[in-house]
Design a protein that fits this description.
Helix content is about 35%, strand content about 40%. It is α+β, with helices and mostly antiparallel strands. It has two domains: about 100 residues, Translation Initiation Factor IF3 (2-Layer Sandwich); about 100 residues, Alpha-Beta Plaits (2-Layer Sandwich), CATH 3.30.70.2970. Pfam families: SIMPL (PF04402).
Length: about 230
């Protein structure tokens, strides 16, 4: 019985060998897919600072708090909630007078309260006006972005893979073959470039009206490497 089993296995191997031996080798190619597009932002982040300087620390802190309270009141009138406002930094620094060949002399204190507002892009100009009218003396930056950054990146990845598959079809047609299988996909990364306006780019209106601050477009893209078998 054992001999019959061994004989059957041996015959199966002999029969199978020609099948593998006659299988045509597959052509493997690697293609890179890219995508890039501009999308319209729908969210703005305004970063601004309240700076107060005084010889006495308590006075500097109190002045800063009064301005901050007025800023909050103005923002509330514009429909901004506490959930849309966050404190980035609250900093107290000594102010020294430096004279040649003398030890630094303490002259007072600077209190800096840096905050950020998240709002729709339609309100940016009005809010900048309200913030500065309340006493905030520095607009650090305005960042325009999309509310669903992850969705934008995922869409860019889909487009990049589609681009890679189109290239594979072109190569396959030139070789009189067709795409048989995708064996590997490597993501090189999706990029997302919101528009950032720095303070030097912001221009206040001469008549005190709300400045016109165009949002522009957000650039989103991705790159992938795809390994494909042709037959």
């Amino acid at each position: 019985m054992l001999k019959k089993i061994i004989l059957l296995i041996a015959m199966s191997v002999l029969i199978a060998v020609p099948v593998f031996a006659n299988e045509a080798p597959k052509t493997v190619i690697q293609v890179t897919g890219n995508s890039q597009k501009e999308v319209t932002p729908d969210v703005a982040r305004i970063t601004f600072s309240i700076n107060s300087v005084n010889a006495k620390l308590e006075k500097a802190k109190n002045d800063n708090t009064q301005i901050a309270n007025q800023v909050f009141a103005n923002l509330k009138e514009q429909g901004i909630t506490q959930e849309q406002i966050k404190t980035n930094t609250y900093q107290v620094d000594p102010v020294y007078n430096y004279e040649k060949e003398k030890l630094p002399k303490l002259e007072g204190y600077r209190v800096t309260n840096t905050l950020e507002i998240r709002t729709s892009i339609d309100n940016v100009g009005v809010l900048v006006n309200e913030i500065t009218n309340a006493g905030a003396n520095e607009i650090n930056s305005i960042r325009f972005e999309t509310a669903n950054e992850a969705d934008s990146k995922n869409e860019a990845l889909k487009d990049a893979i589609g681009d890679a598959l189109k290239k594979a079809d072109v190569i396959a047609a030139a070789l009189n073959k067709r795409v048989a299988n995708v064996t590997l996909v490597n993501e090189s990364g999706a990029f997302y470039h919101p528009i950032m306006m720095e303070s030097r780019m912001l221009k206040a209106s001469a008549d005190g009206a709300a400045p016109n601050i165009p949002a522009g477009k957000v650039t989103v893209g991705a790159t992938v490497q795809v390994t494909i078998e042709l037959e």
